[in-house]
Batch of 2 targets.
Target 1
Amino acid sequence: GENVEQHPSTLSVQEGDSAVIKCTYSDSASNYFPWYKQELGKRPQLIIDIRSNVGEKKDQRIAVTLNKTAKHFSLHITETQPEDSAVYFCAASIVGGNEKLTFGTGTRLTIIP
Amino acid sequence: GAVVSQHPSWVICKSGTSVKIECRSLDFQATTMFWYRQFPKQSLMLMATSNEGSKATYEQGVEKDKFLINHASLTLSTLTVTSAHPEDSSFYICSRLRLAGAFDNEQFFGPGTRLTVL
């Protein structure tokens, strides 16, 4: 089955600086890669996603890049703000297949004011 | 607004009792729903895929006789933790797909149920 690795596990960034979180996946059939933000005790919230036919996607301060050959994808947050502090999870699944999400281990992002 | 609800939001029970958690799709009929478990400071782990009108598909290592899933209608899936023990204490979250179809499989998550077994 799919295995998703995520790094780093914790990340502290000065407010206004950029944060980058990286994930690798093992199943070359995976074609959908969402990123979730989860605050303590809350449900995961989708912040951005990318499909395998696209190499990069951007939504305001958030961007995701995908390298299918290397089987890795990354989340980039620019101009970080204190409200960006949360746990971020990457995930992978196969659209049109079993649709199951396999999550990475999570990154606790702390923005230092 | 929320499209997936869960009930209860938290529950405390004694060891050996059974607990039922409901997951409702509020705005869309869902033939497939998913159940995840999240231990403190850990990631979400898929437990099973709930299929309306048929048996659930369980992930490797998840005991189907302990975690009973029923998906009797297109808007409701239930997870029953039978004979709960302290090690079953966790955050249980359900989800459904945004739409069934190619290239549109964003998952909407319920708010989660915090289970504490004493």
Target 2
Amino acid sequence: GAVVSQHPSRVICKSGTSVKIECRSLDFQATTMFWYRQFPKKSLMLMATSNEGSKATYEQGVEKDKFLINHASLTLSTLTVTSAHPEDSSFYICSAGRTGIYYGYTFGSGTRLTVV
Amino acid sequence: AQSVTQLDSQVPVFEEAPVELRCNYSSSVSVYLFWYVQYPNQGLQLLLKYLSGSTLVKGINGFEAEFNKSQTSFHLRKPSVHISDTAEYFCAVRSSGGSYIPTFGRGTSLIVHP
């Protein structure tokens, strides 16, 4: 149980376009989803936390207008990178879980974004 | 506030040798501790976790970790590694109450040589 599907696994887009990444919890209801960015040889940088039905909470330094997060249902959260630039190229990972008593966080398989 | 320090950025080891990946944390409250493994271009997979109870925790793939409260450590061990254990390993901590957001260490790259 506790499977999180992240799609796409790889995407290449042109500079100035927008890209949407989906994160789905397949067999449980995820009240909370986290979005991380991972640079090469670096740890995970938490970008934002989203709770179903409410606005995402962004970490300091993360542009909310650039990285749009929507968590419209208990099984789906999306991250849209708007007007992408080459410096947005990175590995993005989502994680889903349930708050309250610890159930564990399950990670998606990640999305490699390359902006050319 | 809490933090995690993984003391080694890279640990090379020969196949079938034992390995220990070190993790120290700091927190003003009680914590839960985790180890995750990440294979290239993949997400993170939970290896094991400490919530309470026995300080020796056994996880998947033959890994185990020991919670040492006095030394604020949660080192990961495996008695005999395989080539397939080559990956990035992350230690993470979150408070047992309040914020449920985990804090990750910078990762340790385990490189297993034949």
